Amino acid sequence: MNTIQILGIADSVQTRQLRFNLLEALGSLGMRVAVESVSGMEQLMRFRINGIPALVVDGTVVLQKLVPPTEDLKILLNAFAQGAFKQFAMKNILVPTDFSPAAKGAFQFALDLAALQGGKVKAVHIYHPEFDPESNWLNNSFLDGVGFAKERLENFVKSELNEAGGNSGNVAVPVEVAQEVITGFAVDELLEISKRKDVDMMVMGSTGERGFMEKLFGSVSTNVTQRAESPVMLVPQGVKFKGFKHIMYASNYEAAERPTLHKLVDVANAFDADIHFVHVAEEGETKSYQEIENRLFKILFNGEDPSFAFNLTKIEGASVVDSLNDYAIQHGIDLVVMVCPHRNFWEQLFHKSVTKAMVLNTKLPILVLHG
Question: How much is the pTM?
Answer without folding.
Answer: 0.69
